[in-house]
Amino acid sequence: MKPSRLARLGAGCLVACLAAGALAADLPNERQTIAKLDPDATHRVYMADLALSHIADGRLHVIDGQRMRYLSAMSTGFAGQVALSPDRRELYVASTYYPRLYRGQRSDVVEVYGTDDLVFRHEIEIPPKHAQAMNIRATLAPSADGRWLLVQNATPASSVSVVDLQGRKLASEVPTPGCWGVIPWPEQPNRFSTVCGDGTLATIELDEAGQARPRGAPVAFFDADTDPVFIHYERSGNTLYFVSYGGQVHRLQLQPGGVQVLPVWSLLSPAEQKARWRPGGMQLFAIDAERQRLFVGMHAKAVDGSHKNPAQQIWVFDLERQARVARWPGHNAVSMVFSPAATPRLFVLDGAGNHLLALDPRSTSAQRSTTLGRLDAVGETPVYLEVQ
User: Domain locations in the chain?
Assistant: First the structure.
């Protein structure tokens, strides 16, 4: 009597399993290891990713921007905001956690990681108010001396949590009604500024305990009704740079005696105004402070609401002459960051496909940039870049 088809299959499977078992017996046991980071962190990129489809478990992608290879993914909780310490030795994540993922008693913390190994160090409890917002530089920032960490809150009332990083505790909460963002001063570590909805910059000074002192009068620098500024800012020395929706460059000098408003200049010629060229994106411009170059994403035929459009072109300006020196392809840029080094790089996030490009910021061509590297399809909804 012939064996059934099922029996023949069973016998075949038994032979295959025995053969596989014999082969496995000759193989050494695998051990899981974690690769050590290269101590040379030149051009390391941190890409903040809200992961909107599962926002309770956001991501921070860590990328070797020198070799354009992926290094690590870190969890950033619910809409976690990220920042690096002034000496770049620590990474801060201000985030929210719920015991049932999306519900339960809310807990907000600042998590501290080492950048040498990306290993968790400790956490500091903060009020359950941190801004659950798109990642931008102005939502989380350390003071210039690394003593304080400033956390933007929204309940939706605006305030700033001042965290004592040395004492690992909350120092104070500063109300900032009608204002948004934290901008630390470079040479006065107990001062920070915030942009207000009436077109002013308000400045807060902290005492040695982290408590806010009586503030001075805010300084007007843009017209919020006719041409608001993007909240993204860059700094060169003691000068703050903002770009407006209409393409105006606003400069504020941070001096010991207060804020000095410098003359405004335009990115656009009359013909470009007529063609409705406008800046757009999220982290939409970057500055090479050494060579005094401004890189900004621009798009044509702008309309109300197109201020977050990806770049059709990247315009390069000489800040000293306030003149454009190049118009490069835009690479669908929504965010960009300048990485200084002996051979600097301009990292650009292509918002159409989540591609990270490394451009040569010192390309001499007025029509095109040199692409030094590319890493495709990183993350889900990345929006913000920072460099080591």
Answer: 40-387
